[in-house]
Amino acid sequence: MTPAPTRIATLDVIRGVAVMGILAANIAAFGFPEFAYMTPASMGSPSTPDLIAWTATFIVIDGKMRGLFSFLFGASMLLVIDRASANGDDPATIHLRRMAWLFVFGVAHLYLLWWGDILAHYALVGAIAYMFARLPVRWLIGLGLACIAVQTLELGTLTAYAFDLHAAAHKAGATARTIANWQSLADQFGQPSPAAVARELAIGRGTWRDLVAWRWTHAVGPITFLTVGGPETLGFMLLGMAGLRSGFLTGDWSRQRYIAIAVAGIAIGWVGYAGIVAFDIGHGFDARYVALSWLALATPLRPLTIMGYAAAIIVLARPGGWLTTRVSAAGRMAFSNYLGTTMICTTIFYGYGLGLYGELSRAQLYLVVVPIWLLMLAWSKPWLDWFRYGPLEWLWRSLSRFAWQPMRGSPSAASRSGCCE
């Protein structure tokens, strides 16, 4: 069992980096149609700044921040379960109630605000992950890696289907249905038709009601996404549990081991992702090769890269330093900051707000990211100096316990609270 009488500082700092990094990964999904997320060539030949922005994001950020956040979710989930057991509560009831409310938040986020929600997915996978919470470290690692292998195989099969469908659609005598099926798949992987581009831009520039109606009929639902991305997310959560139990995520290992993991993980990951970038560019961002790159090739590189990032953050974080303290506070309020970025970005880009959807270049989107990062760093610590929890963390905690939790309190009181609420 892993007791949690106090907050574990390393978890907060890593979570803070992850929630800030997720914004940098998601900004293209806020400012552009969904098909533009994977490639800078979806709406025409990319400029040099746009190509550089996409390349840097793909190599350094994309998938790694989500994976890092999934690691932390698994570790934090284990802390809550262990703390419930230590307090004499039923851990299954506590955990599943939390996941149920997280699912409610996620579904509301998905359909009312933004199609890219991850919370409902985490709730479903988190409920499944509970079954593995008592396993020893070696089993958690083995099963986590097995889940990622299953995900790689599943996505490799989908990639093979893309190549087969392309061949069938470009055969002499191909049926209209086959051609349409290929174009629908190509739309998803960054090779949309002009009609699809115009349609998606019009939707994003429409009213809030129009967007809700579109998401209700077109957004990938939580159950569907579970079948597509569930194995990898579960694998990351199990590895996060193993990271907590082994002491890796709590900073208990030697500095030399962390440095070795950071250097090896990041070097191998970045070199591999740079190769994928060259592969995509060399094939002109053809939808088949974009699918191959994002699905089959990138997936097995992520775990080692994420471990490297976690180790690097632990090594570089300076306890008590100004930046470390601010990032840690942002991590303690990750739920509020995650949903807060959605509200800010959808207001900036969608038609019911400033209407900048599709108006900025990919490189210009990062001019939006930096001020929001500064806002996260600016508000999180002062808030926690006065209150025990972030606003949404407090609401989630209160709903999960069927009782309003005390909100006001000293920093020391907050430090004794659970790490992930």
Can you walk through the features of this model?
With 421 residues, the protein is an all-alpha fold. Helix content is 73%, strand content 0%. It has 18 helices and no strands. The chain has helices at residues 9-31, 48-61, 64-86, 91-112, 119-129, 137-169, 176-188, 194-204, 208-218, 222-245, 255-282, 287-297, 302-316, 322-332, 334-349, 362-386, 391-401, 411-415. The longest helix is centred in the middle third of the chain and has 33 residues, at 137-169.
Describe the structure in brief.
By secondary structure, the protein is mainly alpha-helical. The protein has helices at 9-31, 48-61, 64-86, 91-112, 119-129, 137-169, 176-188, 194-204, 208-218, 222-245, 255-282, 287-297, 302-316, 322-332, 334-349, 362-386, 391-401, 411-415. The chain has one domain.
The fraction of residues assigned to DSSP E strands is under 5%
Unreliable parts: 1-6, 411-420
Number of domain modules: 1
Oligomer: single chain
Rg on CA atoms, Å: 21 Å
> What is the overall number of helices?
18
Mean of the pLDDT scores?
92
What is the global morphology? globular
Give the total of beta strands.
0
Q: What structural class do the secondary elements suggest?
A: mainly alpha
Percent helix: over 70%
Order of SSEs: HHHHHHHHHHHHHHHHHH
Largest sheet: none
Distance between the termini: 20 Å
Transmembrane segments: 12-32, 52-80, 100-133, 139-163, 258-279, 291-317, 338-357, 363-379
Protein name: DUF418 domain-containing protein
Organism: Sphingomonas aurantiaca
Keywords: Membrane, Transmembrane, Transmembrane helix
